[in-house]
Amino acid sequence: MEFTVGQRIVFLHESGGGVVLETQPNYRYLVEDDDGFERICSKQEIAPVYRTDYKIDNDAIQGINEDETYATANELHRKGRLTGSRKKIDVWEIDLHIEELTDSHSGWTNTDIVRKQLLELRSFYNRARAKHIRKLIIIHGVGTGVLKEEVQEFLRNKDGVEFFDADFREYGKGATAVEIRYNN
What we know:
This protein is of the alpha+beta class. The protein contains 6 helices and 11 strands.
């Protein structure tokens, strides 16, 4: 696969991603990562991000109106919740990277960070169940796999829940897809 300048990518062997700034010989690419640093990557180290639809973050979920099941792009663009065309809001996503959950985590231990991430996951899951949302995407990143294991352990104990790795083409290796069945 060839990558193009301006294309969004995800790193395969670590959490995070970036944007291709320049193509170089021998399938190497100059990439600006999410932290603003430039680095050279081979095509075996990165994967494309195919995001043409919307992404709902944790703050957006809390702000969704109780009986709002459809929204126009203009409405959600103004609220900063949606890019794309009119969509039924039936897939919820949460990004558990600590940088997405808090403004600062300096001085936090790894245990503190995982506790915060699991607290956010529980809250997100409970809101989704209350709204009868059937599909969730939990972005946990690759890292050392600790958070992924904790997420899966949390989901194993839930009735009517199936989970599996999310679509690699869309999320890379660092996400879990969840399907919830309700008995109504």
